[in-house]
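debug: dumping io for the single-chain case to check the tokenizer round-trip. Nothing else runs in this session.
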Amino acid sequence: MPRENWFLVIIILCLALLPMSESRFYIFLGTDILIMGLFAVSLNLLLGYTGLVSFGQAAYFGIGAYTCALLMKKASVAFPIAFAAAAVFGAVAALIIGFFCIRLTKIYFAMLTLAFSQIVWAIVFKWNSLTGGDNGLIGIPFPQHLDSPTRFYYFTLFVVVLSLFLLRKLVNSPLGRMLTTIRENPERTEFIGINVKKFQLIAFMISGFFSAIPGALFGIFNHSIFPDLLFWSHSAEVLIMTILGGMYSFFGPMVGAAVILYLRMLVTSYTQYWPLIMGTILTLLLFFFPGGILGFLRSQLTFLKRNR
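debug: decoded output
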């Protein structure tokens, strides 16, 4: 087995053993990291693999959360069906939004993703009769078979590992290599007869599907959801996680999510200026570690091997 696979097995085993610490704090933190980590990896399918900078990824996360919550709370739909519907709704929303966004490039593309995200946020914020508006949805039913933090943690771990396995298979498939080719040189790729827009739309839809899954998990985990989940600042936060961990590494966004969430928990216990500190971290990162944490570690390992 390759060294990287052994490393992944060890990480999964460590995560599986986390509840044995019997610390509710670490179980809650671990669940949060898994949810946001999957969200960041789903964004990275666009950012790191396809070269599309999206400022509206929170829309699909929020759509997943609201779809699952509304179906369970207002329609009494069983959790498995509501959970699956959340992922499908996320993919459909991404397909519709992506259909318009991929017609633009670079900064215009990014701004259009932000615009659509804000439109979705505004709909959720104003539709009081359905979404609860600014008051959000509170008291989301918790599935009976997941009625403890430990059970929900293991369920989240299973869903995240399965999703990461599927995404990793995808990025290592011919489709994934095609997306990387488009990222490197979209003009040349189109010149040789490849329908670049079609593949970008496929990436958009898959990313929306896997962004809605952690959104559904988040809503159940917190028993409540609010329109802030769809606001641009949530998209910016997950974008920072992705860049911090390393957008050119598959597991980089997971690392970025873990670092940001842990630092936020640590810093907010001492001061209220977390946004200022996060902005400082991002500035230093862009100047000194443009490849992110995993990119920096990989370059250091390469340097040490060459100088043995």
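debug: round-trip ok. The domain at 20-139+147-306 is CATH 1.10.3470 (ABC transporter involved in vitamin B12 uptake, BtuC).
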